[in-house]
Amino acid sequence: MCMRLFRFQILGYVLASVSFLLVGGMASAQDYVPGEVIVKLKDQPGAQSNFMGKASSQKSMNLKKSFSRLNMYHYKLSKGQSVPQMVQELKNDPNVEYAEPNYIIEKQSSEIHGDVLSFSDIQELAKSEGKLESSTVEMGLEQARQSMSATSVKPIIAVIDTGLDIDHPVFVQSKAVWSNSGEIPGNGIDDDGNGFVDDVNGWNFVANSGVMFDDDDHGTHVAGTILSVVVDIFDFPVEESPFKIMPLKFLDSSGIGSTSDAISAIEYALANGATILNNSWGGPSYSVSLHEAVAVSYSSGASFIAAAGNLASNNDSAPMYPASFDVPNVVSIAATTGSDSLASFSNYGFNTVHVGSPGVYVLSTVDGGGFGYMSGTSMATPYVAGIAGMIKHEQSSMLGYQMKEIIEDTADAVSPLSGKVQTESRVNASAALAAAQGANVDGSQPGYDVNSGYRGSASAEQTAGGCGLVSKMAYDRYNNNGRGGKGGGNSILKNGKEMHVKDVKQNTLFFKLFAFALLGLPMLMAMFMKRNIAPSERRRHERFEISSQVSMKVGDKQLVGSVSSISLGGLKVDTDAMLEQGGIIRMSIESPDGNEKVEVAGKVVWSQERQSYGVAFEEANSKVLNTISGWTSGLKKAAG
């Protein structure tokens, strides 16, 4: 899931609020699509015909889509109908196996850091810095490219995301974009009879059309990173790709999508030949229907690569889906830095997150033909998808769970990941390729079954900022350890035995009372928050509105921003930048009249009161503080 590095709001010490969120916006407390439900019917005679009649005549529900392979149906409720109430009513229907809301899902990454780079910019950068790679981490990419076999096998990698700029020169030159040979472009006919008209290069589930574009940059960046594993995307003209990228757009321009569209994209990918699915998105709401769709990808032999999330939280105790599903083909990816440390924003989990991959300042393609830097587990995930594509290119019969084993077994052990991810390692493309080339492939795989437990409505959930994810305040506990992975009692048995996800044991009364209590929580928090804040966390300095400029040095990068509020403890700045919690930056702050400047160091901090990030002055001397105090004497106090 991703770190939102877009319009980074650097805040004042402890208590100034920032719009720098790790997610593309606060979702509502009920993080599902209003007025929509997903229903699975029981596999028994007459269930479908009986339910369909009742759904229309008695429940006034309108069918939006059916997932025939899964025996699931996506319904739109009538105006005024309550999703939680309808879900409960449907659960009591004798023809229904389960029902759940249509949960909201979000991307797992940032916006572009700094300016978009053109082809000429990239060439100039290559001249000054030497050979460019999308990441500075040494993970054997060049050696792997040189060692790939000259086979005609071209695996298809589905990028389930915000779309793709299919006209970007990198994808045009490399011929990487998948093309549906059974479809005639632009004739308005479903030539291949797959249910999608003019799906020449994939499908746009947001617009319900075959017109492919990317209105967010995220999907194009992810696709470019996948391609960078096997070809040099900065060396023009770009070599032909040894695999194909199938763009499937289900996230909108804000990076938000729904479970129903995610399932549709997974179904499309599998039906049209994709064997590797990249999923740089997710959320905390457990969905049985999405779990079953991922399980189908396993039974189809595909690899399912998923971002672990960017809330800096432990997925063992607070799962993120689909990365936390215990399906054997799922590879959950944490983001690492240039020094192989866990990125400060990355989720982790020794039982549920499998391996690390570079995810900080990744340079890749963006919409409009340019290049840009992004960070997040969204950016780490496509490296692993690219490595899986490389493996599949060498061993076309290899199954998804086998690709997972090779990726994990050949990763480089790095001490900073000890106890953080299951392998305690970061991926190595060259080692994975060598292992694949020497592997003897067994065409069988263990069985896997999803028992149809459901987690109830999301009315007791509340989101918080989190890089493309939605966090929640309450979720069902599966065997007291969360759902998925070793911690949930869902171990994978590789001896041909069935593997099961244990039934959910939900205390309905408890969750109803808990949900009711949460309704009053915002008012109680508003009444008592200030008086209950620990003295060490209370605002130490008054903030003042200001209009000024600041330049910041982050590592070897020089950034510029505008100051909107200031105090003796810190300041609030709007800038296009990516900062990490705990990181130190140096700032040169200009006075309101532009006649003087002060130099001061700042530390990126977390404000518990505001649930947001900020920058606190770090050991500012008395001269600096006196100067800032003089500036504020004629300024208006900032609100809040």
Question: Can you describe this structure?
Answer:
The protein is an alpha+beta fold and 640 residues long. Helices cover 24% and strands 23% of the residues. Among the domains are: 105 residues, Thrombin, subunit H, CATH 2.40.10.220; 331 residues, Rossmann fold, CATH 3.40.50. Strands 8-9-7-11-13-14-15 form a seven-stranded parallel β-sheet, with helices on both faces. Strands 22-23-24-27-26-25 form a six-stranded antiparallel barrel. Helix 6 crosses helix 9, helix 7 packs parallel to helix 8 and helix 10 packs across helix 11. The N terminus is likely disordered.
Notable features of this structure?
7-stranded parallel beta sheet, disordered N terminus, 14 helices, globular, single chain, alpha+beta, Thrombin, subunit H, 640 residues, Rossmann fold, 6-stranded antiparallel beta barrel
Count up the helices.
Answer: 14
What's the main sheet like? Answer: 7 strands, parallel
CATH structural class of the domain at 107-437? Alpha Beta
Number of strands: 27
